[in-house]
Specification:
By secondary structure, the chain is an alpha/beta fold. Helices cover 40% and strands 17% of the residues. Helix 7 (177-194) links the parallel strand 6 and strand 7.
Length: 230
């Protein structure tokens, strides 16, 4: 039996995504909702899936492991959204379908050194960009992004699918707009340089995701807004 609060929260978030998408002339179906499940147990996560959310984000392998086992009967797409250490890359990549935090060349090289018999699948990865310039945040600078994106495009093990960024923490969602607009502009420049039609943009969290969608987000990573009242 589904928990009404979970269903209601999912409907509210999807409604706000749709409104923001329409305000910017976009199809609401072009925005993927990734539920950040790091703070909830597998029972709540199962309710999220039943409410129509098949994409889950986690930032630590150890914390996610019990959910992999408990939810193994469901076709969940797992997204790794935390900082990935090179010595844990293989174990993380075995379990997650997409990595949103490829943020440095040595990590890419570590992935490419993993023997194919140990990790036969290709890896879908977002290049993390520190658009805000905050020293506490990971990610390449916008100026460095082209070089690493070019290296990713040449990789035999990794499929580069887009860009990811984190906005500064603020109570005002509008404070994030310049960061999201900056990532969109960077994506457009890279598309022009590489002859691509588009790249995905992973940006926006519970406090600012409507602004992210207005600025072109294709993936929003939502935690707290899905669990209000639980």
């Amino acid at each position: 039996m589904m928990i009404p609060l979970v269903v209601g929260n999912v409907m509210k978030v999807r409604s706000r995504i749709a409104l923001a998408a329409r305000r910017s002339g976009r199809d609401p179906g072009s925005v993927r909702l990734i539920a950040v499940t790091k703070s909830v147990d597998s029972l709540i996560a199962r309710e999220l899936f039943a409410a129509g959310v098949p994409d889950f984000g986690e930032n630590r392998l150890q914390a996610a492991a019990p959910k992999f086992e408990a939810l193994s009967d469901l076709p969940i797409r797992w997204h790794f959204i935390g900082r990935l250490q090179t010595n844990k890359a293989r174990k993380v990549l075995e379990r997650f379908e997409e990595i949103h935090s490829l943020d440095r060349l040595d990590l890419l090289e570590a992935i490419e050194r993993i023997p194919e018999e140990q990790l036969p699948k290709r890896i879908r990865a977002y290049l993390q960009v520190n658009v805000s310039g905050e020293t506490a945040k990971a990610g390449v600078t916008p100026e460095e992004a082209r070089r690493l994106a070019e290296r990713l495009r040449a990789s035999r093990r990794v499929d580069w699918v887009g860009l990811m960024t984190l906005a500064p923490e603020s109570e005002d969602p509008e404070a994030a707009r310049p960061v999201f607009a900056g990532l969109r502009a960077l994506g457009e420049r890279l598309c022009d340089e590489f002859g691509l039609a588009s790249v995905r943009l992973s940006m926006g969290m519970s406090n600012d995701y409507p602004v992210a969608v207005e600025e072109g987000a294709t993936d929003v990573r939502i935690g707290g807004a899905l669990f209000e009242g639980l």
